[in-house]
Write a sequence for this structure.
């Protein structure tokens, strides 16, 4: 059987289903983010504590992702992803009935475990099933689903919580996610290049250790850690600033600011495709530079300029994520699923650790401190990208015959 090629019916079905899966995952994962100020008031907790409803979820998700490939090897990619989406939607509904902050956090931790069944497996599915020339576009469309899901979840939660309550808002996200989970199950083509097998745990962790010895992959993992950490930190605490004077925005208005996620929906597909034709390195640097520019604009007191800055920051982030995640397959060899799991482990670990630390920064240094923290994250990612390019160039110079294509590309013909 051939690979899925752009422009075909199978390509449309696969990308739309993956779009739906990404939508559900991120709508649920970040559904509590616009509610952090609400949790601070309702449960009388500090901003750093309120952020645990997101940070612990992403932290558990990061660890569980390392085992998701082991389960998918035994049960099958599509089955594991579908079960993950259905369980996540059910857990989202249950969080609406949490009687206390502690119970809410516990439910969100369980939710993080359930959510782990899709992200890395979806990346491995794209790597296994799509033609090499369509990889950037397919990955970009999947990431677009994550951006639209993250945006829609935040807007829905922010708006409904303002008119009703945070419980009704979380329940609504859960019901919507159930519908998208059905769409995913019906539409995603069965994988044809994946063979189920019982893999010993040692054989799963051995490739993980090998990947951790790769300078190129470590650079990409570090880029994911710093960029995602900075991204989540901005969105975690921007609501605390905007809900105060001189802005005094309502919860619904703050929720609608997340509409700038549409910039990410466009940039992930556009920048991913641009990287396929212009080269990943230069486009990645451009995307991170846009992040930094947008971040600095949020220091301007004028609300309109601040929103433009958030939009530009979001555009740059999702462009960067689309390129970096698609770049992982180049260095993963025959163990793409494990490489994807590690990438996402660092991605969500950054969200959890830096996102929570940002609460302390906000408490003592305010928004200027948040901007400084995120600037340091972007600077670290740019430095790692420079190391990656330098090391890859050295490796290419050492090849005895540069006309021989990279193994990753010889598979997808």
């Amino acid at each position: 059987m051939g690979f899925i090629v752009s422009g075909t019916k199978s390509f449309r079905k696969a990308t739309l289903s993956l779009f739906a899966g990404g939508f559900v995952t991120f709508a649920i994962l970040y559904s509590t983010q616009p509610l952090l100020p609400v949790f601070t008031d309702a449960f009388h907790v500090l901003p750093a504590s309120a952020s645990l409803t997101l940070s612990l979820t992403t932290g558990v998700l990061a660890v569980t992702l390392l085992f998701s490939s082991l389960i998918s090897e035994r049960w099958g990619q599509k089955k594991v992803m579908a079960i993950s989406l259905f369980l996540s939607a059910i857990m989202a509904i249950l969080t609406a009935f949490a009687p206390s902050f502690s119970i809410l956090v516990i439910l969100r931790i369980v939710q993080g475990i359930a959510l782990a069944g899709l992200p890395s497996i979806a990346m491995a599915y794209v790597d296994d099933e799509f033609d090499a020339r369509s990889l950037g576009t397919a990955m970009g469309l999947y990431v677009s689903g994550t951006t639209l899901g993250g945006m829609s979840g935040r807007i829905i939660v922010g708006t409904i919580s303002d008119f009703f309550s945070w419980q009704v808002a979380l329940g609504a996200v859960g019901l919507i996610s159930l519908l998208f989970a059905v769409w995913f199950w019906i539409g995603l083509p069965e994988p044809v290049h994946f063979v189920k097998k019982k893999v010993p745990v040692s054989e799963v962790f051995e490739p993980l250790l090998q990947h951790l010895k790769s300078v190129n992959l470590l650079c990409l993992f570090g880029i994911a850690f710093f960029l995602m950490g900075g991204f989540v930190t901005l969105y975690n605490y921007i609501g605390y600033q905007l809900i105060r004077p001189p802005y005094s925005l309502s919860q619904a208005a703050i929720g609608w600011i997340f509409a700038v996620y549409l910039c990410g929906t466009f940039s992930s597909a556009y920048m991913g495709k641009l990287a396929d034709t212009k080269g990943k390195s230069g486009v990645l640097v451009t995307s991170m530079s846009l992040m930094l520019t947008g971040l600095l604009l949020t220091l301007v007191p004028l609300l309109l300029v601040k929103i433009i800055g958030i939009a530009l920051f979001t555009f740059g982030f999702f462009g960067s994520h689309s390129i970096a995640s698609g770049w992982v397959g180049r260095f993963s060899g025959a163990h793409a699923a494990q490489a994807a799991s590690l990438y996402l482990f660092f991605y969500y670990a950054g969200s959890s650790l830096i996102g929570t630390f940002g609460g302390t920064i906000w408490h003592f240094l305010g928004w200027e401190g948040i901007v400084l923290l995120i600037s340091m994250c972007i600077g670290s990612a740019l430095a790692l990208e420079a190391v990656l390019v330098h090391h890859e160039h050295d490796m290419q110079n050492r090849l005895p015959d540069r006309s021989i294509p990279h193994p990753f590309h010889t598979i997808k013909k």
